[in-house]
Structure formats: structure tokens, C-alpha cells
Amino acid sequence: MALTSLDWIVVAVYGAVVLAIGFGMARRASGSVENYFIAGRSLPWWLAGTSIAATWFASDAPLATAALVRQQGIFGNWLWWYEAAGILMLTFFYARLWRRAGVLTDAELIEIRYGGAPARILRGFSAIYQGFLRNAVVMGWVMLAMVKFSSVLLGWDPAFTLTVCGGLALTYTVASGLWGVVVTDLLQFIAGMLGALTLAGIVLTRFGGPAAMAEAVRNVPQAPPGALDLVPTAANASSLEIVSFICLIGILWLRSGQGDGYVAQRLFATRDERQAVKASLWFAFAGTVLLTWPWIVVGLGSLLVFPPATMDAALAADPELAYPMMIRELMPAGLRGLMVATFLAAFMSTMDTHLCWGASYMVNDVYRRFMRPGRSERHYVAASRVAVVLLAGVAALVAWQMDSIQRGWIYIIEISAGIALVWLLRWYWWRVNAWAEIAAMAGSVVLANTRVLLGLIEPVVPAGVLQAVDAMYAPGMDLVRGVVILIVCTVLWVVVALATKPESDEVLDGFYRRVHPGGWWDRVARRTGITSNDPSAGRMWMGFLLGALFVYASLLGVGYLLTGKAIAGTLLVVVSLGAGALAVRSAHANVGETPTSSMKEATQ
Asked: Could you tell me which residue, 15 or 243, shows the higher pLDDT?
């Protein structure tokens, strides 16, 4: 499908504005590594939270969301809705601790929390694992989504798509660092929401509104059972899928609870603890509720425009093509250009974040820490720009080898599941040491890749072992595997922690003075003479529950309104508004006051 001149004008104007912002922020970013990677710790909550949400609105998300609706029904999106609970745990338990730590990357925290050679090894490995390996997989599926989108709407081949889109994101990220990223993220969030809402509105109008469209979807031949159900039930899912759902909601959300990577980076960049807490609460709502439903509406509409019983071979082979095919089918000239700009915005908002975040590990935790310490700030800023370019090239190579966005999501869940609890408890339990975290990380990597590793030595592996492993890789077992990895690795790291020496008193005292954590630090608190002023566990859990009620009542309430259940939807939205007001109040009150003098002493 060729775009009209009007479409290309819209795309060109958007690209020019983004580049202008990036180059306009270049001078502000060039002063130091802190300015380049965490914006001089000066971001307000609304800009930091919107930037995180914009990164979530990657070019992969609409494609994968619509595909989940076509394959499983609305409830299939619990594959990522569960993360809202983790974000809320971050809001009420961890956001203030991250901001208080005063670090540049989450890997840097490792040598504050732990000491000696194990801490140095863990910091270097964690930086490479998070910033290079895991980050490349994420950027790979984001690039893959843009390739699929461009192949349907523009007719571009993969190499040309990656060159044009990657080059644009790379250019302003190299120039401006995090300042350019967050300011353009604000623009990209607005553009993304505008485009997604426009397409969803066209779909609802075409099919007569929410109630009429819902009724039409119920009558689509070969549609997934319970396509309109918001949660899995015996009528629309197998027992295994329901068990997976329960495991996902009850356990795997812990993985995102303490925050890491680009989420933590935004919290480091906020002005103070209260700004960090409010940023994460806004992100939980914007990322889970505001962004989700326009994509789901388009996915439901695609069941009517491209019914499963008569869809073409390309869509049957790759359901992730449904979203761009809906754009091609329903949007008129001019608005198609808006959607291309929207996807370009979504792509860049994620790529710029991951490039900036990944480069911060490579420079702060590898290059400056182990290879070239003691150089000037200008030297490290230059090295940061080189690292951004190298990461972009690696991500393009990964995208070239991938074929499924959803499979990439699941792999990240699996490879990260084993470290969930150790990352949570390192803040609240003094007995966690570097060896425990090393054991959890190594175990998670090995277990997530068990089938591949056994394949290398398959001739000498007993047949029974291979059969058991193959059963764990059967369809529908993805999330169960994640739970198994979490349980096995948790047992592993607890045993390792108790079997090895604790961190030295000097290391523990320094961490406690700097962060003032609550939880099981009584012996350290007595030794230092410092008592944490953080709220009680009961108050933090109450804030968490109010936040969960706010986000999930909003999520389900809007869902019921959009599927023709107006009374239930309205009641849930009203409940969510009340819970939201209380959650905001609780988030503001749950910030413990840390004496400034103590913070200065701890960071010297």
C-alpha cells in the first residue's frame, strides 16, 4: 500500500520535530555522564512516569496485543497485565529506596549492597547480562514489530526498515542522552495515544458501538472461546491455562516488583523520593489501562474484518499482522500517515530508552569501573555515544533472527523469573549476599535454556530426562516453566546464602546508612544507631492494595464498558476513582523522611 503525499508530510513533520528536540538537548546532556544518563536527577514525576509508559508503548505491543485477542480472547493479555502488580509494589515498597541509593544504574547498587570480589564479578556480569544480552532481546522484538508493520503498510524490506527507523532513533539518542529521550517520549506518548484512540474509534463507529460490536464478535465462526472474557474461565481456557494464569498473577509479578533497568533509571533521575513514588504510580495506570484498551478494540474488530474462517494465509501464519492490516483496511489518507508516525513514535520511544539504558551499563559498570577508570567526564560521554551505536547494531542482528514477538516476551519472563525474590529481599534482609544473587542468576539462565543445553549433549542424556524436559516445553507450559524456575532458583539462592559468609559489617553498615531500609535489619540498625523512618509494613501493604484496586478496577471497568456491559463497567470505574484518590494519598504519605545530613555522609 502506497501512502499519499499527505501521509508522508505527516511522517516527515513528526521526524523533523523529534530530531530537533534531540539536537536541542545535546548541550544539556554533554556536561557529564550523570547528565547524559539520568538527566542530572531533575525530572518531575509526570515526565518520568510518562517516559516509562511511552517506553512500554513499543511498536511490538499493539501487534502482540491484537494477536493475543485473536488467538485466545481478551484474557490472553494477562501475559503482561500482571506487571501492574509489580509496578505497584515498586511504588509503595521500592521507589523511594532506589531514589535514596543515589546510583547511576541498578548494577552499581551491587557494590554498595555487597563487598569484595563476588560483588565486583556480579556487577560486571549483571551489567553485561542486563544491558547487553537481555536488552538486545527486547530491542530485537521491538525492531521485529517495526519490520512487520512496515512490510504490510509500506512494502519495505527488513533491511531498509531497520536502517531508516533505527537510524532515526539512534541519531537523537546519541546526541542528547536521557534528556532528549524523556522529552521526545512525552511527544511520542501523546502521538501514540492519539493514533491508537483514532483507530479504535473508527473500529467502534464502523460496528455500531461497544455493545453492537461485542454481539457481532460473539457470533464470529471459529473465534476463540470466550473472546470477550476478561479473565480465563473453564468455558474459555483449559485447566492448564487457568493454573498458569493463577501462577502468573500470584507469583511472577514479583519479578517486576523492585524495579530495574530503564524503570529504575527514571526513578534515579527524579528530583526526590516523592517524585519517584508518584512517577511509578502514574506509570502503573498509564501503562496498564490507558494504553491497553485501544489495541484490544482493534484486535476484536479484526475478528470481524478478517474472520478466522476466511482469513488469508499470511494472517493465519502470523496473527501479529492483524493490527497493521486493520490500519491498511480502515484508515483514510492522512490518518494512515498519523498511524505510521504513531508506530515510529512507539518504536523510537522504546529504542531510545533501551539504547540509553544499555549504554549506561556498558560505560558506568564495565568501561569506567573495570577498563578505563579515572578519565574525564567528556571522555565517558563520548564512550557512551559509541556504546549506543554498538548496541543498536547488536539489536538489529537479534531482530534479524527472531520471528515471534510473543515468544520473545515469554523468554524474558523465564530468564528473569529465578532472580525475582532475591532482588526483592536484598533490600529488606541483611543476610542476602552476593553469592546468593549469583546463584539465582546463574540458575535462571541455565533453567531457561535447559532444552537448548541438553540438545548439545543429547546422545548422553537419558531418554526419561529428555521426555520430562520436552513435557515442560509443550504448548501451554510457558508460564508454568516460569514458576518452576522461580521456585527452584529461590530454594537454590536461600541455601547458598545460608551456606556462605554474610557480607561484612562495614558493607552492611554503609548500605544501611545510605538507604535506611526497613525489614530485617535490626542488628545493623542497633550497630549504627540509625532507625529507619519509613512507614510500617502494614501501611505500605495498604497502599499497595489500594493501588491494585485502583489499577485493576479501572482496567476491568473500562473493559466491561467496551464489551457492552455498561452497569458493571460503570460500578468498577467509580470504585477505581475512589481507590485511586486514596492510593495517591497513601503514596505521598508513605515516603519516609531521610535526614539530609545522613544521606550526605553515606554518599561521601
From this structure: 15
